[in-house]
Amino acid sequence: MERSLAENGSSGTYGSSEEEMSITKGPWTEEEDSVLFDYITVHGEGHWNSVARYTGLKRTGKSCRLRWLNYLRPNVRRGNITLQEQLMILDLHSRWGNRWSKIAEHLPGRTDNEIKNYWRTRVVKQAKQLKCDVNSKQFRDTLRFVWMPRMLERIQAQASSSAQAQTTLVSNVQAHSDPCGGATATATASASDAGFLSEASSAVDVHAHSLSDSGASYSLMGGGSWCSHGAEEGYGRVWEERNNGYSEIAGSGFGGVDMWTEENICFLQQQLADDF
DNA sequence: AAAAACATCAACCGCGCAATT
DNA sequence: AAATTGCGCGGTTGATGTTTT
């Protein structure tokens, strides 16, 4: 509580003098959302620093931009990160590191902020719990050769149970045994880099066009269903409705599967122990 | 039932690069 | 050529909700 409030920090761009130098911070209200939404509907994106001037909003350009990108923008998706998405985040992060916006480009509707949050609240947290450095080779290898294949299994299981059982396609990246049992085949590098995700694609409908670092574009299953409606004439309220829709859909099947269960973590732990 | 500890996520900040003046 | 402004990124914080004690 020590800092914050007032504070201009950034340059005094707006206003010559102090006509209204009070800048609103914190959560956005529905009214503000509505004003911003209308402004962008008319003027388009960009020119963020003009928003306050035109609309009377007492927000910085930065704040407006962020609100638009992370919340108001049509088709933005929040919450219930699917297994496929989780897998993708892990995969892309393994090659690009903390390049959140770049990673986000490959996850339709997801924002860099959300991906970053996911990484910090799940992956980093997990590493900590295992007393690992997230960036250590040990941890990263384990993610890649143990965790991700395991995720893939889940995805495949999901896919075959939800659709009808088709393709058995148990890929060769299958390091399995009972949770926490011993005996785990260390699943060494049967998947070299681009290997196993593209393999997944056939089974799971994750279309990755050869995941070479250039441009991998995936289309996630289920993705189509949510992005279709809304968009045009919506104010904040419409938004909430839409979101509830998401949660419901996601909750009933595809999304929100939590990989970070005790069982799985236990398994991870085992692997780490082995490797060391 | 209340408090404390923890988890999540929206929003802020500073920095650096690019475009404009 | 230098200064100013705009923008986007990545790291971090804090309010709120949830779980544990």
Automatic annotation (TrEMBL):
In this chain, the stretch annotated as Disordered covers: 1-26
Pfam families registered for this protein in UniProt: Myb_DNA-binding
The principal localisation class reads: nucleus
Gene3D superfamilies referenced in this protein's UniProt entry, alphabetically: Homeodomain-like (1.10.10.60)
**Keyword Transcription, does the record have it?**
yes
Entry GO MF terms: DNA-binding transcription factor activity; sequence-specific DNA binding
HTH myb-type domain: from which residue to which, for each copy? 20-76, 77-127
Q: In terms of domain of life, where is this protein from?
A: Eukaryota
Compartments it resides in: Nucleus
A single GO cellular-component term from the record reads: nucleus
Q: Where is the Myb-like domain?
A: 20-72, 73-123
Keywords, ordered alphabetically:
DNA-binding, Nucleus, Repeat, Transcription, Transcription regulation
- List the InterPro entries: EOBI/EOBII-like_plant (IPR044676), Homeodomain-like_sf (IPR009057), Myb_dom (IPR017930), SANT/Myb (IPR001005)
Which PANTHER family does UniProt cross-reference here?
Answer: MYB TRANSCRIPTION FACTOR (PTHR45675:SF31), MYB TRANSCRIPTION FACTOR-RELATED-RELATED (PTHR45675)
What name has this protein been given in UniProt? Transcription factor MYB108 isoform X2
User: Which source organism does the UniProt entry give?
Assistant: Vigna radiata var. radiata
Gene this protein is translated from: LOC106757474
